[in-house]
Amino acid sequence: MSLLELSKVNASIAGFDITHDIDLHVEAGEAVALVGRNGAGKTTTFRSIMGLNTIDSGSIRFKDEELTELRPELIPRRGIGYQPENRDLFTGMTVDENFRLPIWTSGEARGIDDEDAVVEDIFELFEELRDRRHANVENLSGGQGKMTAIGRAMALQPDLLLLDEPLEGLAPVVVENLKRYIHEIIERDIAVLIAESNASHVPEIVDRMYVIERGEIVADGDPEDLVEDQEIQMLMQGSGE
Length: 241
Ligand SMILES: Nc1ncnc2c1ncn2[C@@H]1O[C@H](COP(=O)(O)OP(=O)(O)O)[C@@H](O)[C@H]1O
Ligand SMILES: [Mg+2]
Hints:
Number of strands: 11
Shape: globular
Mean pLDDT: 96
Bound molecules: adenosine-5'-diphosphate, magnesium ion
Largest sheet: 6 strands, mixed
Number of domains: 1
Distance between the termini: 37 Å
Low-confidence stretches: none
Strand content: 15-25%
Strand order of the largest sheet: 7-8-9-4-10-11
CATH class: Alpha Beta
Radius of gyration: 17 Å
Helix content: 25-40%
CATH superfamily: P-loop containing nucleotide triphosphate hydrolases
CATH architecture: 3-Layer(aba) Sandwich
């Protein structure tokens, strides 16, 4: 049994079919990427997992429970953390409060009894956030904002983290820092599924990758092989619709 298993997932937005028969799985502790150019359907797939998108057919199982039958607010409590693409931080609050809010609302249901220990653990990982702890999230740099969004996704001690373009729009030096943090997360035995529109960083981060194009999984396998595959390169560089 996989930790996460999508079978033939068809999702739509406002009546338009967006994903077509998505099959995808992530094993416990595994690092996997979902790679595709802009508009391919990565965010829709993540939102479908989190119960935030209409699913017309197919199944999404996590720890052998059907997620499509759950209310969306229950999904993080089952052990999935989500860093949205547009970071979506709780505005008007500090970094520290952004980490605590999920615990205030769902910590008990998730069996978290030491809020401070969980928050310290997140700051332990993201050392660059330590002196920004009491900063309002509106005053963060792009990299600090991504880190805060990832840290918040870790607040309920997930078994699986969904990271939606965690490296996008960041300066090269910040990208290197984030890659190091993602490695450390993987070393903590948290499974990660990373959406990326730029395949170049992917082989350094994950063990396995899927390629998504026009809402369909068109390839999966070893990242090193796929990134060098001519057809995949052409597809990633294509101009789109
Ligand atoms: N709110 C929306 N209304 C209509 N179509 C949308 C909406 N959001 C996304 N789409 C369409 O869904 C497709 C997949 O988008 P998305 O999942 O965001 O792709 P990706 O994350 O891979 O860039 C795109 O063709 C996009 O135009
Ligand atoms: Mg996206």
